[in-house]
Amino acid sequence: MDDINQVGVDDIFCLGDIIGYGPNPCECLDLVMRRCKATILGNHDQAALFDPDGFNPMALQAIYWTRDQLDNGPGSPAQVNQRWDFLGELPRLIDEDEFKFVHGSPRDPTNEYVFPEYVFDQRKMEILFGKVKQFCFMGHTHLPGVFSTNCEFISPDECDYTFELGREKLMVNVGSVGQPRDDDRRSCYVVLDTDARTLNFRRVEYEIDKTANKIYDVPDLADGLGDRLKHGR
Q1: For residues 191 and 8, what is the distance between their CA atoms, to the nearest angstrom?
Q2: Strands 187-193 and 152-154
Q3: Cβ–Cβ under 8 Å, residues 104 and 138
Q4: How far is 32 from 61, CA to CA, in rounded Å?
Q5: How far apart are alpha carbons 180 and 121 in whole angstroms?
Q6: What residues have CB less than 8 Å from 232, skipping those under 6 apart?
Q7: What are phi and psi of 170, to 5 degrees?
Q8: Is the CB of residue 135 less than 8 Å from the CB of residue 106?
Q9: CA dihedral 32, 68, 101, 149 (to 10 degrees)
Q10: How far is residue 193's CA from residue 199's CA, in Å, rounded to a whole number?
Q11: How many Cα atoms are found within 13 Å in the side-chain-facing hemisphere of 121?
Q12: Strand (E) or helix (H) holding 29
């Protein structure tokens, strides 16, 4: 948020998975509720609300712990209910003119992964881009980059962290603020400049060891969740 303030962002769109792995689910929810113009339902947010499906044991244990944290504060009973109500009302996608916002993919907004290697499957790319009017922003894989209709995946390094929007359809993975998986430990998010028609991938340093130690201190959160932060994968 400090970096966002310095850049001068007007509106913040959160693409989901606010909770589910980290040690401060209530605080993260409060921050998103306070600061974001729009928020999408992520698969971990959905799992906190309903029966988790397809989760590995480490993720499943974290979800059950997260539910307990949401049920027991901090804050007043009204604040506890407000967090649950917020999660329960999150949309699966948002369409704003030429921009679509999802968590997973334009075909399955919550659960479908779009990995960089999918560019080798032209039919899959055609199906996904068939659901996109112009530009689709997504997360879920935690791997930042731009997918083009030419079956290319351009990583932030390959475009020097800035990508110009043209007339071509694009799918943009914004990366992950809380759990990067592209071997870069820094938080990642995207700034969309609608005037300059550019995307800027931002990488932000944070106190990784402090966050990992919080995870290690919680018996119901696997140490692997803290280790992962230190390696960015």
Answers
A1: 10
A2: unpaired
A3: yes
A4: 23
A5: 25
A6: 180, 181, 182, 183, 184, 185, 186
A7: -140, 150
A8: no
A9: 130
A10: 6
A11: 11
A12: helix 25-35
Give dist(CA 196, CA 192) in Å, integer.
9
128 with 140: CB under 8 angstroms?
no
Distance in angstroms (rounded) separating the CA atoms of residues 102 and 108? 9
Please state which CATH number belongs to domain 2-231: 3.60.21.10
Residue position matching structure tokens 């390696």: 231
C-alpha–C-alpha distance, residues 1 and 202, integer Å: 12
Burial 22-34, CB ≥16 within 10 A → b, else e: bbebbebbbebee
Q: What is the pLDDT of residues 19-43, one digit of tens each?
A: 999 999 999 999 999 999 999 999 9
Q: Terminus-to-terminus CA distance in the chain, angstroms?
A: 23
pTM for the structure as a whole: 0.96
Provide the 8-state DSSP code for 98: T
Q: What percent of the chain has pLDDT over 70?
A: 100
Question: Helix/strand/coil (H, E, C) string of 103-150?
Answer: CCCCCCCCCCCCCHHHHHCHHHHHHHHCCCCCEEEECCCCCCEEEECC
Give the tens place of pLDDT for each residue, 86-102. Answer: 999 999 999 999 999 99
